[in-house]
Amino acid sequence: KAGVTQTPRYLIKTRGQQVTLSCSPISGHRSVSWYQQTPGQGLQFLFEYFSETQRNKGNFPGRFSGRQFSNSRSEMNVSTLELGDSALYLCASSLDPGGLNTEAFFGQGTRLTVV
Amino acid sequence: AQSVAQPEDQVNVAEGNPLTVKCTYSVSGNPYLFWYVQYPNRGLQFLLKYITGDNLVKGSYGFEAEFNKSQTSFHLKKPSALVSDSALYFCAVRDISGGSYIPTFGRGTSLIVHP
After folding, report:
1. How far apart are CA B90 and CA B87, in angstroms?
2. Interacting residues of A71 by C-beta distance below 8 A, sequence separation 6+
3. How far is CA A9 from CA A39, A84, B19, B45, in A?
4. With CB atoms 3.0 to 4.6 Å apart as the test, which of A6, A15, A78, B11 could cross-link to A107 if both were Cys?
């Protein structure tokens, strides 16, 4: 079965622009979580959605937002991009919220570069 | 606040020798503990988790981890390392007592297995 698909894989944006990243979970998975990975801050949790409801949110400014659609696909949006937003953005899907009782599967990530 | 420490940025081991990747954690309640592996230019892969029960947890690819409550540790181990185990390993904790279950990740440990 298909894995978690993140699009696009690579993205270059200019400071001040906004960007939307997409994550298609494994079929049947209703939970999608987003993470930011940078050399300086490491892996940080952004937010988690389950059945179109945001269940948890990490410590990120309001420029970072997300949503989940009825088909469980999720998008995250970053507005007014800053150089520090350059990162690998990962999403993960699971059957249960956060993959606590089942396994979470990760996509390959979207590499965002802000110039 | 919860935290995770991976005290070694890099671990070097010869192929065939046992390996240990260290992780200590701090939570105010009961922890859910996870290990993930990341290969170059890839997302994370789940290895194993501890929720409750037996302190020795067995996971994918021959890895195991031991939960030690008194030492607040969750070290990852494998009896015989393979060159293909070379990757970046992350430990993560979620405090289940607060209800939010937001994960915190360690900084990661680069495992290098020499032929």
Report:
1. 10
2. none
3. 18, 19, 33, 18
4. A6
At which residue do the structure tokens 């996870």 appear?
Answer: B34
Contact B39, B65 (CB under 8 A): no
The strand pair at A110-114 and A10-13 is best described as: parallel
CB contact under 8 A, A108 and B41: yes
DSSP A98: G
Size of interface A-B (CB pairs under 8 A): 48
pLDDT bucket at B100, cuts 50 / 70 / 90: low
Q: Please tell me what DSSP assigns to residue A80.
A: S
Residues of B in contact with A101 (CB under 8 A): 51
Q: What residues form DSSP beta bridges with B45?
A: B37
C-alpha torsion B95→A42→B111→B37, nearest 10 = 60
DSSP letters spanning B28-67: SSPEEEEEEEE-TT--EEEEEEE-SS-SEEE-GGG-EEEE
Nearest-CA distance from B66 to chain A in Å?
A: 18
> How does pLDDT run across A1-20, given as a tens digit for each residue?
679 999 999 999 999 999 99
Residues of B with CB under 8 A from a CB of A: 32, 36, 41-46, 51, 90, 92, 94, 96, 100-108
